[in-house]
Design a protein that fits this description.
The complex is a heterodimer of chains A (about 500) and B (about 450). By secondary structure, chain A is of the alpha/beta class. Chain A contains 19 helices and twelve strands. In chain A, a hairpin with a 2-residue loop joins strand 1 and strand 2 (about 110). Chain B is built from 13 helices and 22 strands. In chain B, strand 18 and strand 19 form a beta hairpin. Classes of the chains: A alpha/beta (about 500), B alpha+beta (about 450).
């Protein structure tokens, strides 16, 4: 069955269930089931190698409770749990067991899933916050059966499954709450292409969300794998490192990487900004490649800020992530970070220090400005791609403004940004020239689509990186939450500045 | 109304300055009575030389005249006694070329003379000489809407023309032993303005003459202290200017916020984000709706009271604050709406307005929204759609595009995206908006 149909039918079935309200909850329901199915499939694959022992205890594997088979390989419908039995099993046995909790066995509590292997821990972490929201066992059985129609054994299906997964993730864009964890594929692919990771390098995304960047890195490294070279296989398995601190995207990311062939995805479930003190990062903490789209508009917690040097304690998480990336890059390492316009033109003290730090420790060679609606419909915030490497301080930075492709007024759910839209940027990348905008009639102002600026010019302009911007800014409508946040932030900023100014006046008046 | 602190601060600073609170006594300063002596002597000299004319002596300052106390080492003095003369400007008209240029009240903007706009006048070089302006002259307007406005003349162009001042301006030839910057600040203070008001005759054509200026009392510190006060006030005023910028930014921010909120809420609603339903079909407006413009019967057919056989012809203003009902014969009422229909204003300043129609005919300035498949739509949702940034943004781009008078037509609007939700979902969205939007309205009042 086609992928779109599968998703639609999944949603239709779940809509019938009282317990699952709204697309977000439906997604939460799908995610842990996908994970378990995929994980079981990987276990089955691995069992072909005699040494492998499945990690999940018998009876609790997907193949046992969700998809029991007869001897002849056909689905054992009679023994497949359904109705109240299924709900009882899932709620009272499956969930507690997979979380590593005790259940009653023969009258006494026992922890059935007691393995502490890496993979066992992976399962327990992923399932830790999972919940079964469906109340009707017949509906649940319908959903499971739909899943089972996708046979991961078929190579085609497996690829299709991961594609379906990604289109599910793309669909997340429409779901405000989780859109922030998914960068459009076109952008991650473009970023990874130009950062150009090599097999054997350590690659990280400390704000990995659903794993967009990591998966692209893995795909690219996969192309470099040679047959008959097991060391390449191991290099690939160990290449990607991630960090994500919200449960839903964390689960989605793990599943995403499993689908891309990583047996034990190395994703740290926690706050990447609060791991250790800034000055303590060294040696193994450093990576060759870093690709991230950090969250912005968020407010950094006090403990996040305390991990950073005093002069860089910004409240804006995006700023902290930029500093973190600079710190954790190895010498000659390469990085791409997605940042909002605010980072480019912001000039509060902390931001300024972060920018100075970035351009002193690293060579910020390219900034690509992206058109506003790239992340539509999740948000209309304008974003930019910072490309830098740790080969030395910045001497000059190239700016390039990517304009809307022909025939597009803006990107949307139905007309999203695509990788081929970046072809014109790829062409420019290797053959950089300054491109002036055609001058408007009667205007004497020069604007540029692409230009390079020296570090002196940038420093002289107070590190305002808002260059080669869009000539006519359409008024952006943000989400209500963003609108309120923005307003409060600006108002508080102004209030603070006004208080400061009044204090200066009082000082001049000699008032204590 | 937003609280404006900057203005109050400036007034307070000036008041403090003239009460002597921003400066202190210094032994080395020239005592103020010496200053007054110098001024009197210089005036005598000028009188002897015939350079100024004799004027009636000004009355002594009564004990109860000064409105506040000043430091012991200062003195109150009348403006007339601090000036060598008070001179009215030249009565001449503006002409297109000549040798003399005439500074008028209208050439004074933002506390500066705008030299570019100063026109020629008919005076000859000789006639102009007595009115010739010098650097640091103080001029003040003696009549008109801006009576009392003052300016220090600076940066007189060096282009060979002789610059003079016009009849409605008075030049106070203050004694050069006085710091003109101190005097200028005085002319911005409350003390100056209240004395001006008292001395101003008539309110229709306010007029304040040289006598009033002469009589004004000025608190006078030693000349060195005047300079110190000026320096302090300059510093403080600069800071207040910076503060005022921030204050204005804040006012602007607060002004825009409620509108931004409404737009954001409506946009989110149209994307299903308010109700967490993302299952909509992205259609084109043109597939969902037809817009049908109203009729424009001849004005001869209009009457202004209802009559048998006539029907009200609604115009845009009739859906606004000041309706002016007109009626037309039913046979001309080719385009009509029923109560509950949706009308869109199409032209000019009203472009973007959306109305719930009443029973009656409607004119060409409005268009009715006709639902191609009524069973698909909750009219309240359609109404909210037209309030949302999707439609409003479209109207803005039409207004900014060709002449706003042209308005929009079917083709323009046909390609707008229209999110089609199920009827139940539309209802839920409407209910949510019904709750949230009134709160945004309230914001408008409370945020100011």
């Amino acid at each position: 069955m086609s992928l779109l149909n599968l998703i639609k039918r999944l949603q239709d079935v779940m809509r019938k269930d009282q317990g699952v309200d709204g697309d977000v909850q439906r997604l939460a329901q799908i995610v842990w089931m996908i994970f378990l199915k995929v994980f079981d499939y990987k276990e089955e694959e691995n069992e072909l190698d005699d040494d492998y022992k499945p990690v999940i205890p018998v009876g609790y594997r997907w193949r046992d409770w969700a998809n029991p088979m007869k001897e002849d390989g056909t689905p054992d419908i009679k023994n497949a749990l359904t109705g109240d039995d299924l709900i009882a099993f899932v709620d009272n046995k499956l969930m507690p067991v997979l979380k590593g909790n005790a259940i009653m066995v023969n009258g006494s509590p026992r922890v059935v899933f007691d393995s502490t292997s890496e993979q066992a821990l992976l399962v327990k972490t992923v399932m830790a916050d999972a919940q079964n929201l469906m109340k009707d066992g017949y509906n649940l059985r319908e959903v499971i059966n739909l899943f089972n129609q996708v046979d991961l054994g078929e190579r085609l299906d497996s690829h299709e499954f991961s594609e379906m997964y990604e289109s599910l993730l793309d669909g997340l864009q429409a779901m405000g709450k989780y859109g922030e964890f998914h960068t459009p594929k076109a952008i991650t692919r473009f970023g990874v292409d130009h950062v150009n990771p090599k097999l054997g390098q350590k690659c990280a995304d400390w704000a990995c969300g659903t794993g967009g960047f990591l998966v692209d890195i893995i795909d690219k490294l996969n192309e470099q794998k040679r047959l008959g070279h097991p060391e390449d296989y191991y290099a690939l398995q160990n290449a990607a490192i991630g960090g994500e601190f919200k449960p839903m995207p964390y689960r989605l990311c793990i599943t995403n990487l499993l689908l891309h062939g990583i047996d034990v995805p190395n994703i740290r479930y926690g706050d990447s900004l609060d791991i250790k003190n800034f000055s303590e990062y060294r040696g193994d903490d450093l990576v060759d490649i870093a690709c991230l789209n950090p969250p912005y508009g968020g407010v950094a917690s006090p403990s996040d800020k305390m991990s950073f040097p005093a002069n860089m304690r910004s409240s804006e998480t995006a700023d902290l992530f930029v500093a973190l990336t600079v710190k954790r890059l190895k010498k000659n390492g390469r990085a791409i970070v997605v940042v909002p316009d605010g980072f480019l033109f912001g000039n509060d003290n902390a931001k300024l220090e972060v920018k100075k730090y970035l351009m002193k420790e690293c060579n910020l060679h390219t900034i690509i400005r992206l058109p506003q609606s790239c992340f539509a419909p999740y948000t209309s915030i304008a974003t930019n791609l910072l490309f830098f490497d740790k080969t030395g301080p910045t001497a000059e930075t190239w700016f390039y403004r990517m304009d809307m492709p022909e025939g597009y007024k803006h990107f949307s759910k139905t007309k999203p940004i695509r990788r081929d839209h970046f072809n014109v940027v790829d062409e420019w990348w290797d053959n950089r020239t300054e491109i002036k905008d055609p001058q408007e009639e009667g205007s004497t102002t020069e604007t540029w689509k692409s230009k390079k600026y020296s570090i002196d010019e940038i420093a002289g302009n107070n590190y305002n990186l808002d260059l080669c911007g869009y000539p006519t800014e359409e008024k952006i409508i943000l989400s209500p939450e963003e609108t309120i946040k923005n307003f409060i932030e600006k108002r508080d900023q102004l209030d603070n500045k006004m208080d400061e100014k009044l204090k200066e006046i009082m000082d001049l008046l000699g008032v204590e | 109304m937003a609280h404006v602190l900057a203005k109050e601060l400036r007034e307070a600073i000036l008041q403090a300055a003239f009460e002597g609170k921003l400066s202190s006594f210094n032994n080395n300063d020239t005592p103020v009575y010496r200053l007054l002596e110098m001024i009197r002597n210089e005036k005598c000299e000028l009188l002897k030389k015939g350079l100024i004319s004799k004027t009636k002596p000004l009355p002594e300052i009564e004990d109860d005249e000064p409105p506040f106390d000043i430091p012991e080492h200062w003195v109150w003095e009348r403006w007339g006694n601090l000036s060598n003369s008070i001179q009215y400007g030249a009565n001449a008209g503006a002409i297109s070329s000549g040798v003399a240029k005439l500074v008028r009240i209208s050439d004074i903007q933002n506390n500066k003379v705008v030299w570019d706009t100063v026109p020629f006048c008919s005076l000859s070089k000789e006639e102009a000489k007595q009115y010739e302006l010098n650097e640091n002259d103080i001029l003040f307007a003696r009549t008109g809407g801006t009576v009392g406005k003052s300016v220090v003349v600076k940066n007189i162009p060096n282009d060979g023309f002789i610059y003079i001042f016009a009849g409605y301006l008075i030049r106070s030839n203050y004694n050069l032993n006085i710091d003109y910057r101190f005097l200028k600040y005085f002319m911005e203070s409350d003390l100056y303005w209240s004395q001006l008001k008292e001395g101003t005759i008539g309110s229709a054509q306010p007029n304040c003459n040289g006598k009033t200026l002469s009589k004004m009392i000025v608190p006078l510190p030693p000349i060195e202290e005047q300079a110190r006060i000026v320096a302090r006030v300059d510093e403080l005023m600069a800071k207040i200017d910076e503060y005022e910028k921030l204050e204005n930014e804040l006012v602007e921010l607060k002004k825009n916020f409620p509108g931004d909120m409404k737009a954001a809420v409506l946009q989110a609603a149209m994307q299903g984000k308010l109700t967490n339903i993302y299952d909509y079909v992205e259609c084109e407006y043109g597939n969902m709706f037809e817009i049908s413009g109203g009729s424009q019967p001849s004005k001869n057919a209009f009457i202004d009271t209802p009559k048998e056989g006539y029907i009200q012809l609604y115009q845009t203003r009739d859906y606004g604050e000041k309706p002016q009902p007109v009626y037309i014969p039913i046979k001309y009422a080719t385009k009509q709406t029923k109560e509950g229909d949706i009308l869109l204003a199409r032209y000019g300043g009203s472009l973007g307005k959306v109305f719930w129609a009443k029973d009656g005919a409607y004119n060409v300035a409005m268009a009715k929204v006709i639902f191609n498949k009524p069973e698909l739509h909750d009219p309240r949702f359609v109404y909210y759609y037209h309030l949302s940034p999707i439609y409003q943004g479209f109207c803005l781009s039409v207004a900014n595009g060709r002449s706003a008078q042209a308005g929009f037509n079917k083709d323009d609007i046909g390609s707008l995206p229209y999110p089609l939700f199920t009827i139940e979902e539309q209802k839920r969205i409407v209910e949510k908006l019904d709750k949230i939007l009134p709160l945004c309205e309230k914001l408008e009042k409370e945020i100011a």
